[in-house]
Amino acid sequence: MSATDPTTPAPPGRVEVLVRRTDPRLAGPVYAQPSDAGADLVAASDVTLGPGERAVVGTGLAIALPEGYAAFVHPRSGLAARYGVTLVNAPGTVDAGYRGEIKVVLINTDRSETITLRRGDRIAQLVVQRVEHAVFREVAELPDSVRGVGGFGSTGGFGSGSTAGVAPTDGSDGSGAEVGAGAGAGAGAAGATGREAAGVRPGA
Q1: Composition bias, kind Gly residues: at what positions (predicted)?
Q2: How many CB atoms lie within 10 A of CB 42?
Q3: Which of 106, 121, 123, 196 shows its CA 20 to 30 Å from the CA of 56?
Q4: Cα separation of 204 and 195, whole Å?
């Protein structure tokens, strides 16, 4: 779904976002599938990123969001998985009051390969969401919670020896209680992802 005629009201249950293309020859924001959360943004110019390099890339698009909404620029999973290209500040935030061109800060995280993106290639996704404007109230003490003041790593996880989230294979329910006769054996499989053949450029 692309930008619609400005005289056509938004369908019920949809939010209207005004769009101005700073480059009329480029496509407006497009949902590849009706159920997609993000609309594709395209590059307004060619850009080449060497290993570890980053660049600010225009999209040829400016928008006006209704009050109470913001738009968030997310990486495209295909670019990230296949080529290591992602966003430096993911997600980037587009405030309701911003009227300038949306620009994307891309980075090539691959350690050896250079990638070239062409004008019109899809480089990011725009997700429009309702946001709450908070009222910050200073207090002397905060209410108690289960977590409390525990910070980074306080809930365990990778590298801590924690088995949280791992299904038991000994017939127990994870608490030490036997829940079935006999012990089961689990097996895991490791997978690997690889880049596409050298010289293949991501398509628009």
Answers
A1: 173-191
A2: 25
A3: 196
A4: 18
Q: What is the mean predicted confidence (pLDDT) over 172-200?
A: 46
* Sign of the CA dihedral with 69 first, then 34, 86, and 188 last: positive
Residue 105 CB-density burial (10 A; 0-12 exposed, 13-18 middle, 19+ buried): middle
Q: Are 94 and 16 in contact (CB under 8 A)?
A: no
Annotated binding site: 76-78, 89, 93-95
Residue 83 has pLDDT above 70, yes or no: yes
List, as residue ranges, the binding site for substrate: 76-78, 89, 93-95
Per-residue confidence (pLDDT) for residue 190, from 0 to 100: 43
What are the structural domains, with CATH classification, of the chain?
18-130 (2.70.40.10)
Residue that has been written with the tokens 């997700």 in this structure:
127
For residues 61-74, average pLDDT: 97
Polymer length of the chain: 204
Give the pLDDT of residue 40.
96
Kindly tell me if the per-residue pLDDT of 31 is higher than 70. yes
> Are 18 and 96 contacting, i.e. CB atoms less than 8 angstroms apart?
no
Structure-block tokens of residue 10: 């938004």
Burial of 13 (0-12, 13-18, 19+ CB in 10 A): exposed
Hey, CA dihedral for 142, 148, 153, 156, is it positive or negative? negative
